Amino acid sequence: MDPRVERTRSVVMQTATDLLVEGGPGALTMDAVALRSGVAKTTIYRHWKSRDDLLAAVIETAIPRLPEPDPEADVETSLRAAMRYSVDTLRHTEWARMLPAFIMLSQHETEIRAISERMEWQHNNVLAKLVRQAAEEGLVEGDVDVDEAIAHLQGPLMIAHLANLLPIDDQLADSLVDRFLVAFGPSADEGRRAHDE
Amino acid sequence: MDPRVERTRSVVMQTATDLLVEGGPGALTMDAVALRSGVAKTTIYRHWKSRDDLLAAVIETAIPRLPEPDPEADVETSLRAAMRYSVDTLRHTEWARMLPAFIMLSQHETEIRAISERMEWQHNNVLAKLVRQAAEEGLVEGDVDVDEAIAHLQGPLMIAHLANLLPIDDQLADSLVDRFLVAFGPSADEGRRAHDE
DNA sequence: AACGAACACTACGCTACCGTAGCGTAGTGT
DNA sequence: ACACTACGCTACGGTAGCGTAGTGTTCGTT
């Protein structure tokens, strides 16, 4: 492939990503990208057919994919690894800073919503498998609601990030799994029953 | 007060709210508000000094305030009431549909960020008091991290709403408190220790 | 009845952004 | 060396949004 093409693509993508991260979707304009990247606007349009197309490409590129768990590892280890991975993406990637924009855009832009659904599907797939496996092995209650479990694993992390409520680090990832295993542990029913009376 | 003023204010606010909810911040334009509400643009500018000012007013009006718990009630009842209130605002109010926009705007617009911080402060204040009280009464572990507790109470609800992961209803509110009490209960340490070996 | 405030309407000027056209230049692969 | 393609540059046309001006009208108050 022509190295000029490769260079243009990467420079524009990086610039567009920076603009989105710094100023939100409103800051990602073709003129701004052209000005800051040094790439001519006409050239940008040769690679992306519209501004929305470029925006979608930026998001598509930045979007995290949860890795499949190592089939050798036991469930708890895999669960901890998955949560640490989620924490890492929120700590080290540009994704973290475009997440708010992404959440909003997926509400109103059908193109972005499609990306969002693919991502959620992929994430929930990985996590759901782990939760079911954990249920089978007796680590959590047998009749666990998978979506509820995912909400408890990911929800606190999400709000910690969006509201700056807690520091995002490995310790958080571990404590999330700890809390989850206690809350959804097979002895949880007894705990709740004991509490009710 | 002049009834014309009152009418204009309420009609414009309602129209602006609708536009924000339907199409996000980009849809809330002065021209659109004027057109749909039937109020002349010059009149709108007589009540709000700019488009951003109107947007802020809409958000400020829609923003939910967590009510102070009844001092007569016991902690667990108050906690359940607070969570049911959170659920209700996400189920019945326009706030639910403008939350994504709000999250994004508070990232980049300082005016909105200020509103966001006031809201978080108010919410966390109410919840923090309840969590501390719960700790004192031995309902949850004594050295509980208040912010962590809040994250576990509100996080799953937030993600359930944003990702359409779970139905938002009273049953969810109750199960959130149930899970929370188990995960943060005074016996949680034993649970975790028992699990580790 | 009369005054004043709030309002509607039209028409602006201004800016920012989108997307395109035309032309000349510079780098790539053969 | 050659043709080809990507690229830069400048200049557009078109649209949408913000905020304002001027004029006349309606409504509320006293």
Provide a compact summary of the structure:
The structure is a homodimer of 197-residue chains. Chain A has 197 residues and is mostly helical. The first copy, chain A, has helices spanning 3-23, 30-37, 41-47, 51-62, 75-92, 95-108, 110-136, 146-162, 170-183, 188-196.
Mind explaining what this structure looks like?
Chain A has helices spanning 3-23, 30-37, 41-47, 51-62, 75-92, 95-108, 110-136, 146-162, 170-183, 188-196. Mean pLDDT of chain A is 95; it is low at 190-197. Chain A is mostly helical. The termini of chain A are far apart. The first copy, chain A, has two domains: 3-61, Homeodomain-like (Arc Repressor Mutant, subunit A, Orthogonal Bundle); 65-185, Orthogonal Bundle (Tetracycline Repressor, domain 2), CATH 1.10.357.10. In chain A, helix 1 crosses helix 4, helix 6 (95-108) packs across helix 7 and helix 7 crosses helix 8. The first copy, chain A, is 75% helix and 0% strand. The structure holds a DNA duplex (30 and 30 nucleotides).
**Low-pLDDT windows of residues of chain A:** 190-197
Reading off the top of the CATH hierarchy, the class of the largest domain in chain A is best stated as Mainly Alpha
Number of helices of chain A: 10
Average pLDDT of chain A, rounded to a whole number, is 95
What is the number of beta strands of chain A? 0
**Secondary-structure element series of chain A:** HHHHHHHHHH
The greatest inter-chain interface is formed by: A-B, 44 and 45 residues
Q: Biggest sheet of chain A, open or closed, and with what strands and sense? A: none
Oligomer type: homodimer
DNA-binding region (chains A, B): 29-48
Organism (chains A, B): Pseudonocardia dioxanivorans (strain ATCC 55486 / DSM 44775 / JCM 13855 / CB1190)
Domain HTH tetR-type (chains A, B): 6-66
Keywords (chains A, B): DNA-binding, Transcription, Transcription regulation
